Amino acid sequence: MFVSAIIAAGGQGRRLGAGVPKQLLEISGQSLLQRSVEAFLRCDRIDEIIVVVPPEMAEAPPAYLGSAVKPLRVVAGGRRRQDSVANGFSAISDRADLIVVHDAARPFVTGALIAATIDAAQESGAAIAAVGARDTVKLASTRGDVPPQSGRSPEGATFVSRTIGRELVFLAQTPQAFRREVLRDAVALGQGGVEATDEAALAELAGHAVRLVEGDPRNVKITTADDLALAGGAPVHPSAARRADRPDALLGLAPVRTGVGYDLHRLVPGRPLLLGGVALPFPKGLAGHSDGDVLCHAVIDAILGAAGAGDIGQHFPDTDDRWRGAAGLDLLRRAAAAVRGAGFEIENTDAVVIAEQPRLVPFLPAIVGNVSEALGIEAARVSVKGKTNEGVGEIGRGEAIAAHAVALVRRK
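The structure assignment produced for this chain is given below.
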């Protein structure tokens, strides 16, 4: 079964009052959009992802959407949510048997919840995540259809019409999953003029039964500034929003951030020894899915970590043949582009290579030059040092080489 996911991120989030689309605001260093997309990238039940964003963002999408480990397409959204999902539906693969729709504003979705909705939709045609009401549920009404009241009430006051059994009330979430033909009917109904707040409602109106799957109370939707604060995000400052000069500007966090990186590879015969893209004369090289350049790999994790943009395994997994034998410098250039796409400039990096042999001093100028070029910064802002392990452990025995790195990035 081929499963496509549509991430709905086409809105502007005006209720949040941030001045930029809310899906670009951050929680713990990652935007709502990136968190939602990465949840679907990690889920092994998803075969492709369609990300629907505002038209201006579709023309220049964030860099992390261009380095996905699965097929991913970015399409422009429409005026309403249902228009955006319709645009996403038109972009899915012809192979898609089932489609999952998810709001980017729900950044805490889990792989287990995604899988549960997929399984239920495969069996029943359509399924949505939903949580049961925990509080007593009251149906509101005006005085016209409630019993007469004693005393006086303000004009326009709202009253309880009746109490509804909470066991019958569920609060809808996403993901929502549909067999292809069910979502096709729902989209067609929406394009025909029917309005609804989600695709499940359109599917219901099109005559399809929608199954409920137990949702997750932590799978909250970020709608207001209070929601963002409760979720651990930075407060929204309107003055900062007015200063934003990019559609993907991220607000409210410290302008300078640091990250750390580490990597270790075994030394083996028959491989070239590459450090910072420089081939060192040595009888052994570093084993790895790529070229094993521990220095580049450590710096990659440092800059990605500083920007809150994931790690090397998420961007360049060793399960993907695209990165087999890939040059560390090329991966470093891609990671630097992802950092800039996340709204940061790289200020400097400092790295230590730990190797018993060979001696690195003669090669350091060339190594620094390569790393600075890949990062797009001056060589004066790159430091690389060589240390031994004093004969201790696998590094001291000449069985491996390791590297540590730190990086400083600054918000644009």
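Interim note for the steering committee: The first strand starts at residue 3 and ends at 8. DSSP finds 13 helices and 18 strands in the chain.
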